[in-house]
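Listing S7. Sequence submitted for prediction.
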Amino acid sequence: MRLCRYAPDKLGVIRGAAVHDVSVIAERLPRHGWPFPRGDLLIAQLDGLRAEIEELADRAKPRPLSEVELLAPVANPGKVVVAGTNYEDHIAEAAKDQTIAHGRQVNRTLEEKGVFLKATSSIVGPSQGVAQRFVDRRNDQEVELCAVIGKAGTRIPAARALEHVAGYMIGLDMTVRGTEHPSLRKSIDSYTVFGPCLATADEVGDPQNLELKCWVNGEQRQNSSTRHMISGVARLIEYASQFYTLHPGDVLMTGTPAGVAPVKPGDVIEAEIERVGRMRVAVR
């Protein structure tokens, strides 16, 4: 199943080039008062609601996907965990081009570099686009596979880690280059683009065998496979969950391959990940 959100605040299932409205499923979510529970309520209930969502999609009138304004597939992620420099070829290009690394040592191992957080206020959907700031500085596009946590856990062993994944999205980790910490430079409003859908784990299969690509204004910049990750999705979940309890709706961004380069207002970014989808994002 490929679940999406679209304006003004609808929920849909993508089938081919059409979206099927299943927004009524929100009425089946538990009602909570303050203080609200951690995590995204829909993602937390997704397994139990999936059959009903599919039935609603079967009955809904299809609408062309091109007619809707896609929002981020997950409405309320508690945190966005980022694994930086997780492809050898990106490490090599950062070492070669100091406008990427700004003199910093680029660590290879997960134990050396760790992970960091992006502000959830930076999240937008594909149709909302990127509102570029600091236009006098280098702003790059980075395509990434994003894993969405479906079941809460802490100190999760790698062998059980994928059991905690609800599904996957495409992520654009937009980045202002500079000397500040990445969690600041990557947390600008609209610099975290998620879309076009949440492809459930069964739709995607092995997350370490997916082609991922990115184009800017029709010119291909990135073309790789998730099999080239230094640390795979399961290992990243294991590592991150040693520090953070992961809750339903939390997002893990798994790093980008080589091919990052500057974008500017007026550019159009297209990103694609096999068995997840493709999205178009305008920069303004």
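Caption to Listing S7: primary sequence and predicted structure tokens for the chain studied. The two ends are 32 Å apart (CA to CA). The longest strand covers residues 165-173.
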